[in-house]
Specification:
The chain has about 260 residues and is an alpha+beta fold. It is built from nine helices and eight strands. Bound molecules: zinc ion. Zinc ion binds next to strand 7 and helix 5.
């Protein structure tokens, strides 16, 4: 095992836990999520930090340590300058990276998810101005894709119980079981489905669109207030049910700039 190695990654977040050192959580293409240290005393943290703390894809030179690997060098591979001068885009980018940080287990490489994250930053970099509602909807779409890739793809078209295609207006939502159940099954197996909640066709449509379509297409759908509120409740109930750590803020509140 060599003492140094390289990785391509996107910094998800950082914290100062001990004097002069800074811990970075980095989602790498090759090794999944890594927790890495930049030493203030031995390595030039002041030189590294500016390259690590704006959303960017970077090449990292890493040194294996006893407990944590160290960041010895960093070179930016793609920066996303469209995010820097735009607070709502930057907040949206950071919120999504935070979801990756709390939703993904360490040391599990996931190139498909990595591509979604890089695609997300690229999309935001060139996106038109976003309203608060649109930003919240987009973050929900990101969260749905993330859930799907880490093994919790919600069932949005067939009954979780009998597998029959859904009939409009005749189903309920159950976040912990991971999707929709038809009205007949919900009534027949009341003990199993008592926690299932009503959901409107308009909200289900938004969830499907957000899960299945690309980020650039998410600028299109009309976002009626009631359906959007239901959409957020559903996405957040999935996060609460399936994430190892639950975010401190709702996705909707997180996007309010
Ligand atoms: Zn059914």
């Amino acid at each position: 095992m060599s003492a140094t190695y390289t990785a391509t990654g996107i910094v998800l977040g950082w914290s100062d836990r001990r004097e002069a050192d800074r811990w970075y959580s980095v989602f790498t293409r090759e090794h999944g999520k890594l927790e890495l240290v930049a030493r203030g005393s031995h390595k030039p943290l002041a030189k590294l930090a500016p390259h690590l703390e704006m959303p960017a894809e970077a090449e990292l030179l890493l040194v294996r340590g006893r407990q944590y690997d160290l960041i010895a060098g960093v070179e930016r591979r793609s920066a996303f300058p469209g995010l820097y001068g735009n607070l709502s885009r930057l907040v949206l980018a950071r919120n999504a990276l935070h979801l990756i940080d709390i939703g993904v287990r360490p040391m599990e490489a996931d190139p498909a998810l990595y591509d979604v994250v890089a695609g997300w930053l690229g999309f935001l970099n060139g996106s038109p101005p976003l309203t608060g509602d649109r930003a919240g909807f987009l973050l929900g779409a990101f969260a749905l894709k993330l859930l799907a890739l880490i093994g919790y793809r919600p069932e949005l078209s067939h009954c979780l119980s009998c597998k029959a295609p859904l009939v409009p207006g005749a189903y309920r939502w159950h976040a912990l079981k991971g999707g929709v159940v038809c009205e007949a099954c919900a009534q027949r197996q009341q003990e199993q489905w008592f926690a299932a909640r009503a959901m409107t066709d308009a909200a289900l449509k938004l969830l499907r669109f957000a899960l299945e379509r690309g980020f650039d297409e998410q600028l299109r759908p009309h976002l009626p207030g009631a359906a959007l509120a239901e959409y957020h409740e559903a996405v957040e109930s999935l996060i609460v049910a399936h994430f190892p750590t639950i975010p401190a803020n709702s996705l909707r509140a997180a996007c309010a700039v």
